[in-house]
């Protein structure tokens, strides 16, 4: 067996791929202010008496060993200045958890800061502490109070002023769950007994929650089992927004779904003013810089979500807060539970209102003969009815100033509320611009158009719209620099490229997009239709074309195609079908269905046309059942005075990849054993197995590992853990 080393930590960069384009001009919407005292992610933030308090988190410095990890530090800002900037940070009383806490929950109530659960080197905790803020902003010594019913991390907490509500999370030694617990605030600041409330509709973690208008609201999250299923970042990411009424006795009513987030999101941040709720950044297969908002409606629901403006960085596991004048984001990571940052950004939402802007058509054909481009725009924190119509202009494209384009004078600016799809519950203005004037100043491809205007109270507003101008080849393309990671294309199609799968010409572009129906001849359509009938197949989604056509990969890649949920009928299986043009037939691939996100995934070693099919279950290939694990363990465990060895019994394989993680989720060691498994005698006689000795010198603590054995296009994974003593 040949041992192939892999550098620890390098894989984390895979997950830092940005899925949303951030145009430089958008960055001006957010301004930097006094950074955190150290880089942080998975921390919490609350405000009390005009001060900001930041508790715990994961850092690349400090911690019990002085080299990063979980922190028990608490910092507070001396003041939130009238102009939105922050004063110097001060050190407050540290939390009692000497090993620190991350992925915990915090909230403020009646001048007290509460911290609940979280994780450290000992795993998820059930602890609950509180501390009272002194007049100078410092904190009194922490006091333990009634612990939670479960040891949790990745949960969320919110309060209606009478009770704390803890939702979801990952339970120690069990995994994610859907439970909801609540406890009352006692007069002395302690918490009363916890009780179970109406459970969430499905298990959930890394979501966000808040109470508004007598309702508990939940935003996004993951329904996966844990943070690193099979050694990879969590999937089953949700765009759902849930709401449950809080009854007079504090019990929760039934959960209902509100307007969903524009995209699935976990590890994001959320904050609210009295008018609107905002979500920032997060993880949806890549790290996002998007900012969305939705207005609170009088009936306790939400209006439709709108894209507002982008953060200067793509961030996840960040914290956020809002006042009536400003919104802030604090810290966060550039990669999945990794690369913490100290930056703090803020936006002026009252003095300089930010507008959401939509242009119609969304894709502008520069050679078309249409007369107008319609702009829809609104203000989350200002009254659009105060608009002075004569002041509206398009003033910049892609951040570059242009000769202002004024609205067409033939049309009167109109104010609407919720009378258009995608704008339910939202009040907005509508103006029309001359189409040729807009087409003359926009480039081909993605572009941003800046709209500015003035309100009758003298305030000026601005906002950016992201649109697309047709190019000579209207196709979504990524130039792959690292040639690994997940890419998302139009229509929700995804491609996940393992390391080393896409080599060759560095200028080669990967394309993934819905197939252009106009480009498919009538004869070709008939061939495909006849081939479906011959195999008893039915189309369950659009056809997608992956290019370069015929491209073959050194390592199979995973493609994920959206499907029509109405096609998922009892007695029929969903699978990805490959159109083999040479044979004139559809070939079904062994597939996995993700009902939560409406995707069907399969591995392939080449690119062509693929489409989700509904088929008889017997017609869908199943994985080779011969590839299965026997015993998988680390020895010695605990390891003291020597490096641990990971043993995986398996009958065959092309190689085994090992990843070792700290309790915080950081990669501590990775490596690969190539070739077939060897014959290993562990005392019970020779057996077919792989063995891998951890090469990195590990500090004392608990570590988790995953092993992945591949054979052809099939892969199996197994997880375990071990301890190191020093």
Low-pLDDT runs: 1-28, 471-483, 504-509
Chain-averaged pLDDT: 82
The main pleated sheet reads as: 6 strands, mixed
CATH superfamily of the largest domain: Kelch-type beta propeller
The largest beta-sheet arranges its strands as 1-57-56-60-61-54
Overall CATH class of the largest domain: Mainly Beta
Q: What is the 3D shape?
A: globular
Write the CATH fold name of the largest domain: Neuraminidase
SSE-based structural type: mainly beta
Assess the beta-strand content as a share of residues.
35-45%
* CATH architecture tag of the largest domain: 6 Propeller
- Report how far apart the termini are: 30 Å
- In helices, the fraction of residues equals under 10%
Rg over C-alpha atoms, rounded to the nearest angstrom: 27 Å
**Record field, number of beta strands:** 61
Number of helices: 2
**How many domain modules?**
4
Describe the protein in words:
The protein has four domains: 234 residues, Neuraminidase, CATH 2.120.10.80; 114 residues, Immunoglobulin-like; 143 residues, Sandwich (Chondroitinase Ac, Chain A, domain 3), CATH 2.60.220; 94 residues, Immunoglobulin-like. The chain starts with a strand and ends with a strand. The protein is mainly beta. It has two helices and 61 strands. It has a six-stranded mixed sheet, with no helix packed on it. Strand 22 and strand 23 form a beta hairpin.
